[in-house]
Amino acid sequence: MARTTPHDRPLTTAQPLYWRVATELLDELRDGTIPPGERLPGERRLAENFGVSRETVRQALEVLRHSGLVATDRRGSHATLSGPPVETATSLTFPIGARATNPGAVDLATVAWEAPPPEHAEALGLAPHCPTLIHRYESAGADGRGRRTAVTSFSAVALAEVAELARYRDRAHDTGSAQLRRAYDWMRRAGLTLHHRDAITRLPGAPSVRVTRRVHDQHARPLEITDLVVDAQQDALVYEFTLPAAG
What we know:
Blueprint: H1 17-30, H2 43-50, H3 54-66, E1 70-73, E2 76-79, E3 106-114, H4 118-124, E4 132-140, E5 148-154, H5 156-161, H6 163-166, H7 183-189, E6 195-202, E7 208-216, E8 222-231
Antiparallel strand pairs: 1-2, 3-4, 4-5, 5-8, 6-7, 7-8
């Protein structure tokens, strides 16, 4: 007997609440909001997101498990829908300027809970000397050339909305797991639409350029600001843009 999924039946007001939650989760699985293999948020987070009880979430997950769309193991529930993971736009890798994994490169990333630079605090709407999550990234070639350094400050909004970022408050200075390469994916999964603006300036008296990225959400709330310094004499940044076809 063929199994049914939430999309096999039209949605009606007579359908139970858990079926509606299962339908919305299935939409996120199919449009790549939750990529294949990605762990789903916990029951408590899902219940808060959908405004339902945890029991309703459990029933919705059970529907998806029976349909083979979600699997659960000791690490939690994760998506099993076939298809390639959603790619993040090249221009939105975190932090800006981060290199692809290279065995010859020397990369270091750390997090700290401290007061951000004054210009970051102002951009994020933070009171002076108010601590927040700070991410620092350094990269250089095996020969020490092409050095890049980036400092990112996250806003109170980002820490309140994105659970994965908030967890790092208690893990500050944990250099072993501070890459945060999926920060933008976490923001998207939290329901935030990302808008960014990059400004490029040359540093006076030095063969380097500074790239300042500001990211805000669909409500114009600041999420993060990053200052990247690149040794322009030895290195280069490449930006890619895709324009829609005229029509």
